[in-house]
Amino acid sequence: MKCNRKLIIDKLAGELSARQTAKLDRHLAACAACRREYEALSKVWQLTAATLEKDSFAAEISPARRAEIFAAASHEEKCRRRNRIIRRLLEYAVVLAIGIVLAGILLPPLKPARKKVRQLAMPGRIKSDLSVKEVNRLEERSQARVSSWKRSCDQIGREEREKKSAPALGATTVLPASAPAPASEMNFKHLRNSLPVKDKKSESLLQVSKTPEPAEKPAGKVSSDETPAADSDPGLNFVSCPAQPLSTFSIDTDNASYIQARQSIRRGNRPEPLKIRPEEFINYFNYHYRPPANAVFAVYPEAAPAPFRPQNILFRIGIQGKRLGPNAGRRAHYTLLLDTSGSMAVKDRMELARKILMNLFKKLNSSDRIALLLCGDRTVPVFSLRPLTPDNRKRLLNLAAQTTPHGTAAFADGIIAAYAYADNHYLPNGSNRVIIISDGIFELDDAGRRNIAARLEAARKRGISNLVIGLGGDGDDKLLEKVAALGDGSYVFIDTEREADELFANEFEARFREIARDVKIQLEFNSAAVAFYRQIGYQNRQLRTADFRNDKVDAGEVGSGQAVTALYELKLKDGVPKHTVVATIRIRYKKAEDMSVEEKVFYLSAGEIKAKFDAADPAFRLAALVAEFAEALRYPEASGIASPRGIADKLRALWLSDYRRDNQVTELLTLIRRIK
User: What is residue 71's predicted lDDT score, i.e. its pLDDT?
Assistant: First the structure.
């Protein structure tokens, strides 16, 4: 029998049966603790009974009054019991209601969301801001076009029968130019490809229209005379090389997408597919390319069979920028815009922002000048452009420490004010940069978006670049990334003090000392060797073929010692001779010191392609596995892409052989294993 104080009290009250009393007595004889408690309670019980016997109040209560008291007590007990039952029923009802509400919120979007992901995995993906209603409307339109095609075919058949002229064996029927595509090919993905495609540069990077836009052009599609993918699987959009041998894009040195995905996985969630940008996963890691000795860039092409599709070839272009050294580079003017809205108080975001500022002030040279503007309901300059003397560093840190988040952020006004300040204090022959620190939580109307786009475009043309530092992870990540892209800068995301320390310890020169601007890459594939190809990532950085040598077209910047990696997957033709050039790599850029333009050319021949994936350089294999992981998150329902478990198995073997001491790769392996 277990110790039970209630039974002891019931025994003292004389409410136990003979069997229970005997059982309790046996327990008291065996349990010293319960026996001591029983003896103590017995003394209290006896003392209480003796005191009550000496009091005469019980005798003074009349029998009628006694009956009323007992009746009231009985009624109170019944009411209490009824209330307990009602309360319990209400609790069940509330739980049921919450379950129904959550089901109503969460379950309906699942089917459209899954449908959207499948659509995004197809060639000619629909832009992510198309609503489900619009998608359904487009599907209905496709069915109407199928019916129209059938009517056209029937008409053509009647005309042919009337002419009594049958086509020759094996001849192909040619439809009129206005006739729709054959029904076997007229499905929704072809309808999306048939929608008009906007010029990449004419389309505002800060879209203000509320209406659905035309479908986004697939990677590599740059003009109306360049054909879309002719051989594709969901998520693997291959382009026909004979029809479109050139692929042109701007470099991208952002890494925010990887850090945000890492944050989501650590919380036990699978990252949102639409927020996965594979190039930012790839470029987060250090592949230790050798810097050039006497040039701005060194280029390292390498190719080997793809790790999970060995019938295809994975082609990597590694680009390494020169290192300026800690004291090299031009004088700089920095205009800091710090978001001070109330949301910055959540989860110590302002503390992280202060940590970032502290690291920045320590790294800048004393000859650099800095200004600080606080962006809240209105934007206030609190520190004018002054050199970073020791006293000024202390003043800036005190200002940051005294800043209290509150209200909302007038983000458009803040950016315009910061760029106006940088423009008014422009440093000729120097580096002019706006640094934006924000969690991305703000309201922005159409006019604000247009004003931001116009201001960024004008500043970029004058040579004012930016660095956008995102915090939190629940803000408008897409807008912050676009502000960086249009502002000729880069977008980094910081979620811990460790990331803040690494940014300034390992990446400061890369982020703050530029060596080249408007860096563009153009791949020319040899159609005699390559049947199909696809680029992994860089969908937001595609350029038209003619833009490569148009030096007025904006592209990305590269900082001191910074590296950029791009990957292509190729389907080669059979029997390609080893001496055949498979791809020609061209890189074009403006040197930061004088804005003069340089163009360099590199080649990959068939004989340089490794026979096996495991024979490739460890850095090549790491980039391949990182890219596969990013695409597994980006296209969770696509066929042909490896599972996280398969990626983890290959990565573990690579980690054991080459990357045991690399914290980034160790962390990556842990993240992949946590994906369900």
Answer: 67
